[in-house]
Request: fold
Amino acid sequence: MIPEGQSEVEATVRAVLRDVLGLSETRAAAFDAATPLFGALPELDSMAVAGVLTELEDRLGIVIEDDEVDGDMLETFGALTQFAAHKALT
Amino acid sequence: MIDHYDWAGGREAMLRFGPDHGPVVVLAMPLFEEANRMRSLATTLLRLLADEGIGGALPDLPGAGESEKSLEEDSLSTWQVSFSSAVCAATSGRSGHVAGLRGGCLVTGSAAARSRWLMSPVGGEAIVRDLVRARQAADREAGAVFDPGTIDLDGPPIELAGHVLPRQLLRSLRTAEPDVAAPCRVIRLDSDRRPADRHIAGAPLWRQSEPGDDPALAATLAADLAQWVRQCAG
Reply:
């Protein structure tokens, strides 16, 4: 099923972070747009970044090019969701 | 029980589970880091299968697990040949079935077995992509840039995600597709919408940085695999 709206993309991004980083349901549910990710979450190391991106691709049916991956898109939960929504919905 | 198997290139360890007669499932572990993350699930799955009266074997591939061989010597065909030898050693007259987790489905190809059962099979290209991504993310932190085109050039092994890998292995992996020789059953997680015979609930343990376990998932998988083996034995 291809996510149709922004909120569905956000739920997918949240679930991917929870599953890949092994976060508790409570912790993942508390993420908001301003929650810092890369550099702030100890679980999000370079291996985990690879896992997050690949899992997002699989679940959203998108392809993320190497040159699209930078510090900005991983800076906050909001930025990552925006990036994913832009790829999945346009 | 810790057993072993011999193959053309040496001897590797193989864990054995359950009865020493009747059907036996030989399980191919995922490749690289994913093997560590799923080892607990794999052993729980084979123990539960043993409770159902079905034998199990979990061979180490050369360069993986307890193997003393260096990964730098491996190629995909080495893994296929060694897995095939493990299946021969584990079955010897018994009805043999092959199960593969994730990238393990890339090494089962030449194995003689009555059936195949695959969990979340993945193509080699996606595996290499993951490894390259981890290297790129690490390099970015260090202010460097890794060019994946390096893999296509001849040269020394490349370090990706903590593994020193021969370029030939990476090139052969990139074109490798899961072995789905019939009869074959494919299981995927609910979150993975690619085609499968069954989708089940659960989190992708192979992506988690800390090795975890999921007893509920292991139980569902074991029940499914046990039923499949009985169905194919008939």
User: Anything to note?
Assistant: The interface with chain B takes residues 1, 15, 18-22, 43, 45-51, 53-55, 58-59, 61, 66, 69-71 of chain A (CB under 8 Å). Residues 9 and 85 of chain A are 6 Å apart (CA to CA). The two ends of chain A are 16 Å apart (CA to CA). Helices of chain A lie at 6-21, 25-29, 46-60, 77-89.
